[in-house]
Amino acid sequence: MTPPPPTPSIRFGTAYYPEYQRSPDPERDLDLMAQAKIGLIRVGESVWSTWEPRDGEFDLDWLTPVLDAAHERGIGVLLGTPTYAVPPWLQRKHPELAVVRAGGARVPWGARQEADFTSPIFLRHAERVIRAVVGRHGGHPAVIGIQLDNEPGLHLIHNEPVFERFTAWLAERYGDVGRLNEEWGLAYWSHRLGDWAELWRPDGNTTPSYDLAWRRFQAELTTRFIAWQAELVRELVPADRALTTCLAYQRPALDDVRLSEHLTVTSGNAYYLAQDALIRDAEDRPAEPGWFAAGPDALFQAADRMYGSKQRRFWVTETNATSIAGSQLNLTPYDGQLRQAAWALVARGAEMISYWHWNTLHDGAETYWGGILGHAMTPGRIYDEIAALGAELDRAGDDLAGLTPDADVGFVCSPDSKWALAFQPPLTLDGRDPDRDSYERIVAAFYQGASDAGLQAGFVTPEQFGARRFPVVVAPALYCLSAATAGALTAYVRDGGHLVLTFRTGYADEEARARAEVAPGPLREVAGVRYLEYSTLPGPVPVHGLAEDDTRHSAHHWAHHWARHWADALEPEGAEVLARYDHHHFGRWPAVTEHRTGRGTVTYVGTLPGRTLAAALFRRIAARAAERTAEQATEQAAVDADQRPAVPLVGDGGQPQVTVRSAVNARGQRLWFVHNWSDREHAVTVSRPAVEITGRRRPLDPGPLRLAPFDVRVIT
Questions:
Q1: Radius of gyration of the chain (CA)
Q2: Residues β-bridged to residue 410
Q3: Residues in domain Beta-galactosidase trimerisation (predicted)?
Q4: How many Cβ atoms sit within 10 Å of the Cβ of residue 104?
Q5: Which of 52, 122, 215, 450 lies at a CB distance of 3.0 to 4.6 Å from 419, suitable for a disulfide?
Q6: Please, is 701 exposed, middle or buried when counting C-beta atoms within 10 Å of its C-beta (0-12, 13-18, 19+)?
């Protein structure tokens, strides 16, 4: 049998669904793809009712001509299992499969992911269709991998059998209800249990530890489901086929790191708002988490998060071709923005860029989620830009092989803390109602600050922390802090690291219980600071001290730097005060402190910093890190040109629209990705001879490197 097509350095693809088209013409579509250097299509994951139109009756041959035609053109195929979109006959035959929400309402059939995937009935039907589809097509020479389900973890499943399994899960972990009573503090409001049968349903739960356990359990169900599919599919396909799934990182029942342990490669969505939303400005407004990346730094953060799932390169199985939203939001990208976004993802470790989708659909819920071809099925501006990008990536292939993104600062993030702070959020956006996205908002604010300071980031969980070394580590709102993680962070500082702690870090233990000790609990000594009270900030409060000398970095020279939403009443215990609130009451307390201990340093930030305050903080940290690097380098006089301190680029100052990211390829060469996220020309200075690999490969002499509006240049 002919082997699968060779693996390119960067796979360039699109989701392709000829079964949705009015007049399918795969030969013509695949010819257009080949001309655009699109070398991969993603197929089959959404159409269970096409594969199995009636119970036990399969129609499997319709995909064969597509696979054959793809193989003839050297186009690889990612074949999906269709388990996330249940056919009508199954929901009619087994209405009990409908997911039950909190409160008892059933998810009505008519969208997708409506079924309780833990049910033995569902699993029996799912196994049958997987064996049929993958058994027939998984060995086809065009198929390079199998996508297992799609965007798993959409619902917290409250069906009665799931609750019964949850009770058994708790009994296995805690042993007896007496221990559970103590661990969860169930004396409160007369919640003490006398027997496991007395455990109340999660629908009306108000106990934080219960909610955290429920969320952990739900994420474990999702992981088990994907692991079950992986084990099943591995029996059916050759060993060289990759196993993956498309992750939507916002899903409530998802632990991406544990799930990714069962995958060959992590894949996910990288959607972003285009047009003016992708212009990188210098406005001091809060970072906005959400389904779409709002701005270049949020796009970088999404990519860094995907890399963190396995600490390896990842696939982007879905990203914008044109508009990705409902009919009311059609933000087709400006000229150059598709290219910018793709290179940004490659810079942070993407080894596949696949567009959603080949053609805009004429039917269904996603009629206005735009494809490479529009409703007219005719190539236009978007197709031409993607074809040019495909050719550019193809030409640069050897340079892009094996890229490992650089990271100056590591973010220690945990799903436990995210879930706990969704249940008891520290932030409010309107002054009263809880912001369930508090955790993501805190992470985004500190990530934005690091990015504004020119630092590159990586993500690790507490369990991954020891396996990847960073000069600077941020523990943003690491609320559920175990003794083991606290010990690892303390050892990191004692060994010479620079640790940034934020409000809410360490305030609770691994059961989401507030600690019965002076905050920040086990990190108090290493932080050199304590607090006994804290307050919500109803409005922004100006901060003075740390940031005032750094206004030269701002194009607008703001008069103030701001603290938002929160204030810990910090009392230094050896720490130096870096910044204070400019306020008649809160001014008695520091907003930011710094403590040198052992060989390292701890910066404590007791508020949610505004953008300029966060940037000033990270510029200070970066300067200290550079000093340490220089001290170490003096012991090695011959610092070679490939060391990252010898950056071949020097900005012209005050350019928030320009970002620089770097990565090292398989040959050990460092590549620099320079983006101009604006509608005006900008320039950087090349400080030493270099080579540009974007566009026409050419040498660069020292001097100005001009970037057109919405341009990106990659040099080595």
A1: 26
A2: 458, 473
A3: 407-625
A4: 9
A5: 215
A6: exposed
Say which CATH topology domain 409-635 has.
Answer: Rossmann fold (3.40.50)
**CATH 2.60.40.1180 in the chain, residues?**
650-715
Regarding beta strands 267-270 and 246-247, do their DSSP bridges make them parallel or antiparallel, or are they unpaired? parallel
Please identify which residue in the block is written with the tokens 């979109």.
85
Q: What are phi and psi of 506, to 5 degrees?
A: 80, 5
- The CA angle 707-712-715, to the nearest 5 degrees, is 95
Tell me the CA distances in angstroms from 294 to 268, 274, 285, 301, 522, one per residue in order.
17, 8, 12, 11, 36
Instruction: Please state, as a whole number, how many other Cβ atoms lie within 10 Å of the Cβ of residue 697.
Output: 11
Active site residue ranges? 151, 318
Q: How many CA atoms lie within 13 A of 36 on its CB side?
A: 28
Q: Pairing mode, if any, of strands 682-686 and 649-651?
A: antiparallel
pLDDT of residue 639 exceeding 50: no
* DSSP sequence for 27-82: HHHHHHHHHTT--EEEESTT-HHHH-SBTTB---GGGHHHHHHHHHTT-EEEEEP-
∠451-457-463 over CA atoms, to 5°? 145
Give the number of C-alpha atoms closer than 13 A to the C-alpha of residue 34, restricted to the C-beta side.
Answer: 14
Distance CA 470, CA 500 (A): 12
Token pair listed for 352: 């596949």
SS3 category, 580: strand
Strand boundaries in 180-337, DSSP class E:
242-244, 246-247, 267-270, 314-320
Our CA angle for 317, 410, 613, nearest 5°, is: 105
Adjacent-strand bridge partners of 715 = 672, 692
The confidence band for 50, taking pLDDT boundaries of 50, 70 and 90, is: very high
- Give 381's Cβ-side CA count (13 Å radius): 9
Task: State the chain's mean pLDDT as an integer.
Answer: 93
Q: Per the annotation, does 381 bind a ligand?
A: no
Residues of the chain with CATH 3.40.50.880: 409-635
Dihedral angle of Cα 506, 509, 511, 515, to the nearest 10 degrees: -110
In CATH, the number for domain 650-715 is 2.60.40.1180
Which has the closest alpha carbon to 605: 442, 453, 404, 466?
442
SS3 at position 341 = helix
* Model confidence pLDDT, tens digit, residues 293-335: 999 999 999 999 999 999 999 999 999 999 888 888 889 999 9
Q: What is the pTM of this model?
A: 0.95
Phi, psi of 79 (to 5 degrees): -95, 130
**pLDDT tens digits, 162-194:** 999 999 999 999 999 999 999 999 999 999 999
Which stretches of 175-249 are DSSP H helices?
177-184, 208-234
CA neighbor of 305 nearest in space, from 130, 459, 488: 459
pLDDT of residue 4: 56
Classify each residue of 230-249 as buried b or exposed e, where b means 16 or more C-beta atoms within 10 Å of its C-beta: bebbbebbeeebbbbbbbbb
Q: How far apart are the first and last CA of the chain?
A: 40
Alpha-carbon dihedral angle through residues 450, 455, 456, 462, given to the nearest 10 degrees: -50
| Separation between Cα atoms, residue 349 and residue 347, nearest integer Å | 6
Q: Which residues of 398-429 are buried (b: 16+ CB within 10 A; e: fewer)?
A: ebbeebebbbbbbbbbbbbbbbbbbbebbbbe
